[in-house]
Amino acid sequence: MSKTSEGATPGFLVWRLSMKWRVAVDRAVAPLGLTHAQYSLVASLYGMQRSGERPSQRRLADHTGLEPLYVSKLARSLESAGLLERAKDPRDPRAVQLALTEEGLETTRRAIDVVHGLLTQLLEPLGGLDSARTRELTRELTTLLDAPLDPAAAAPQERNAVVEY
Asked: What's the rounded Cα separation, in Å, for the pair 76 and 123?
């Protein structure tokens, strides 16, 4: 265990791991003209398109966990870059549907390959992508992601000068 992890709370470790991952993905996809947030959007859209879906911005926001306003901003920048197209939803004139362009599909495929390489590196200490430990980690992370959080219900508690994340 690293010195940073000694006595750390699970929240702090989740935060540190998420920051480590975000920075690594940012650096890895930068040569493709993407940021981590843009990658999250195009990779999710890629998967949804492959399964036959042309999601709205709202649906993509729900899927990625990003704020709808931020998804709108990202979609506009990706559209300007020629990677994504936005169109009015014929079933709901207030909604905007998203789809990757041909250039967007190619860029996203390359980015997915790069990020898959990073994921392989990250999970090596657990035995790799297909290991039992990685499958267990995936189950545990899914459990945590599915657990509701209500910031309003979090009452302040006395702690011994420990910063919690």
From this structure: 34
